[in-house]
Amino acid sequence: MEKDELADKKTFLEEELTYDNYVFRVTSDKMLVLLETPLVTRGDKLRFFKNYPKIKEFLISQGIQFVLEEPEELDGKFIVAKGHPPREGHPERIEFLPKFERLIKKTEEDLIKEIPEDEGKAEDLREKVQKILCVKEGEAIAKWHPLTPPTPGINVFGEEVQPPPLKEEKNFELSDIVYLDEKERLIKAKNSGVVTFEKGKIDVLPEYVLKGDVDFSVGNIYFYGKKLTIQGDVKFGFKVVVEGDLELRGCTENKDKIEVKGNLLAEGLIRGEDTTVEVWGEAKIRGAEFAKILVHGNLYVKDYLVFTDTLVEGDLKAIEGKGLIYGGEVRAIGNVEVKIVGHTAQTLTIIGAGYRPDIVNDYLVTIERIEILNEFLKKIDDGLKLASKLKEEGRLTEEKLKCVEKLINERKRITEEISKLESILKDLSTKLTDYRKKTIKIQQKIYPNVILRIAEFTYTNNEELNGPIVFYLDVTEIKFKEGGK
Asked: What pTM does this model have?
């Protein structure tokens, strides 16, 4: 029986199949049965469709499977049976999300040959380039497409048709810091860091070293991770925002913006009149020129601060290397210790300890407001005395009496406001108590024209003094004593 079946199939393939003057042929891939007899006229087609139910029964009786309920026309011929072709499979693969597409394909910004002269366009380009791509913990990096295995087909003889083998294999792997979320079909990061894709491996680096400058080949940096190390400089106008620690081995240029949520170690110079640096942790820097610096922790300066606008919420120490501060304004909420303050040229230098800007400013503004109100109060009292004299002399007219009533009401209002302000002043003074205990220690020398501030009090040094000396607050006056204790 099996041999007869094979012979029949061979006949179908080589000699075709005939029914009632209609000739049918099986295609060489055994996936289709075609009507070979041409249907020239409309009448030919109507007769064929009328006879098709019997034709279908005949084809099925001959072992043909997947006979169509209605013939399908293709390129002038009619298909009467159609097998199910095998389906090609696809390997497991990934598709990077738009933020990370730059890892596998270049963009227009990657092909920069000239830096725009227009600063507006340059700033836009700094933001667009961003070669260092970071991910936060749990953030998705890529879509995951699971393996689609090949599916066998079945021809018109009911035989299984093997699918072609996979054209390619899985072309990626995941590091230990990256995981697959099968439910969401996403590749995600276990930790924050820089995303890399090298030799088919997706990795996230919590610590990353940039072996060069932050320039137009790198773009602005928004780093999430443990530590970023920049071996070169931060060029003009670039931004570096780090949620972690930053080690900067080079220098900054003008109009840079550095933000560090962790600690900062700057081995080069921080410079630029429009350069700003803000550090939420501890900062250790070699030196700074003209920049604006805000440190929420302690600041340690190796060499110098020159014409900077610096505010430190912890202690400030400049006792290594040159340990020099001159020009600009340098303030710390904590204690200050420095080798040298000021300059031989008697450059105006402002240095402060125990200086909490918000409280000190509120305190001084409140005092000023009370003084102004007291002056108004004195003028009102003088006016009321004059009115009392006019009344005794019988010269107080009805119109002037109305003015007196207004003065009395105004005096009451001002008195109430002064009372409230004095209460506020008392609270502010209490808050300043600890800050008034802070000191400024000079190890080697302080030059003339240096203004020292402790809490809300100010002292101007007009002579050259050799250290070690300590400036401290004695009740309401800043004084100094020799010795470093």
From this structure: 0.73
